[in-house]
Amino acid sequence: MTEEKKNRYKFETLCVHAGHDVLETKTISPPIYQSVAYPFESAEYAAKLFRYEIEGHMYGRMDNPTNKMFEERLAAVELTDKALATSSGMAAEFVACLRLLEKGDNFVTAGKIYGGSNRLFSQTFPKMGFEAIFVYEPDNIDIWVESINEKTRFLYVETPSNPNLFIGDIASLAKLAHENEIPLIVDNTVASPALQQPVVLGADIIVHSATKFLSGNATCISGVVAGSADYIDKIREIEYRNIGPSLSPFNSWLLLLGMETLSLRMAKHCENAQAIAEFLENHSKVVSVNYPGLKSHPQYELAKKQMKGFSALLSFVTKGELTDTKNVIDAFNLIIHTGHLGTTKTLATHPAFTTHQQLSREERLAIDIPDTMIRLSVGIEDVNDLIEDIDRALVKI
Fold first, then answer.
1. What is the tally of structural domains in the chain?
2. Residues of the domain holding 270
3. CA dihedral sign, ordered 31, 37, 43, 47
């Protein structure tokens, strides 16, 4: 799709059409190019390809026509020049950060982030000579300011965060980053571009676990990083080529199909999650609820300002002890207990002992994840069926 067409069409249309030229492929649905290599027109053409002087397809580890369709569609809806599909969300995060870092550098990140991101930043990156400076009160912009020094290469925020639903002030963080001549990276997984386009608020680089809402049906592990043309081209030429975190063409095809219904799904996710959050907030067996759509949420006004909806993810803290929380999870009938989010089915997770179990109890409490927290990724089922299932389970306390 040309830049002219990208600028002409609205979000929902881009989710269906961007990246795929039906007249070029002669197919209504995007084709799967299940090939690891591509024929070269000439020796000189091949040489130019491998020198990155022209665009084309060299080898499946670096590029693929089906992957390119997904990349163009994601870039169109995230309002960036380009995007790069990766084998997982963690792979996207890894190459996005690695491109900006040299040995001895640091970056500043919100402390309230996904557990896997925390361990990438706190365990793996130090082995490579990079330091992550964590801000454990990420709503306080002054702490961000104080954390930046001459070796800081970027700021990083996940908003909304998993599982405590912290909302980062993207515009303020982008302003701070640019004042220090560094970029802001935003993990937009939980919101998806249907609800939040960080570039509009000043962000420079976007990462997704495409496994989640972009897919929407839990069928493919995948990730994507989006940004300027120069930034994405450099990652493809160096980090992506050298490390090899390429995405299967079949998974890109699944993502292309999933994105066609992104807006419809996210609207239903938001509607159901809002109703369940309100139900839980008034339940006698619940201590607190984390959901940006509730007026009790500390960043409710900010969420309203920078998001078009509050997404499917919420978490709540039960009364009682750890055993009570486990009993509630075990009592779910319709809701599925698993370590995932962002699919059409409603899922429950016990963060302290699954997604964030690699953190110590003290570390978890520092980012507001008590042992009695349950995370829900609310699906698109009938909301009354879901509320009945939750209410029945809470009786176990």
1. 2
2. 262-394
3. positive
